[in-house]
Amino acid sequence: MPTNRDLYLPILVNAKRNYQVGIDLDYQRDDVAENISHKNANYNELTAIYWAWKNLSDVDAVGLVHYRRFFFKSGRKNKLEHLIDQNDAEKLLAKHDVILPKKRNYYIETNYSHYIHAHHEEPLLEVRNILVESYPEYLESFDTVMNRNQAHMFNMFIMKKAQFNNYATWLFDVLEQLETRIDISKYSIQEARVFGYVAELMMDVWIETNQINYGEMKWSMTGKKQTVKKAYNFLHRKFVKSNVDSSRTHF
Questions:
Q1: Residue 150: left if φ>0, alpha if ψ -120 to 50, beta else—which one?
Q2: What is the pTM of this model?
Q3: What angle do CA 115, 83, 89 make, to 5 degrees?
Q4: In the chain, what percentage of residues exceed pLDDT 90?
Q5: Which of 27, 47, 95, 141 could form a disulfide with 10 if both were Cys (CB 3.0 to 4.6 A apart)?
Q6: Is the pLDDT assigned to residue 226 strictly greater than 60?
Q7: What is the structure's pLDDT at 249?
């Protein structure tokens, strides 16, 4: 866990369930003030984004790193002592309005096909319908992003506050509409996290539609990686027809 509390604010998501009375945990809970903590099983890390959007006012920028994924200094080993610091963030934000992780490449399939090989297709179909009806200016970018084989993934970012507010306003409206259009009652626990998965692909749609000035930064995971296992799962999904509800999350 990063120790620089001037830059990093640890947030306990799904705090209503995960918080244990009597344990001195120096984390911000996502279930205080205006929040959607109760939706964490379906929204994943987005409950932290929502909390920041509604409750962080006296800040110049907002970002999110999570699940052992962090932004690292360029050219340095992926250790916690080499995480970006406030000076790094300020230098990048002096040039760009938004900082994103370097793009994830899928090579042998598109963002759309990669998603539906791991998840139910219905949510993406309904998101497109929502854009047609409510945000037609986003439709061209949506189709373009879906047909690419690379994307800025993981819901990781650093944004100036104005851009963050604009992004969150649009994203959560789309997702709230999506909630009313799909029935996830029969989804597996993994697949019920659908709104977090969909949001990953919405980042580039928002970036491109609004012609956001963005930069990219090195990212990586702390701890052990399972590259071979991930590659096997990726190829298995691409070439072998399987039950989506029994598959693992996409990566």
A1: beta
A2: 0.88
A3: 85
A4: 72
A5: 27
A6: no
A7: 39
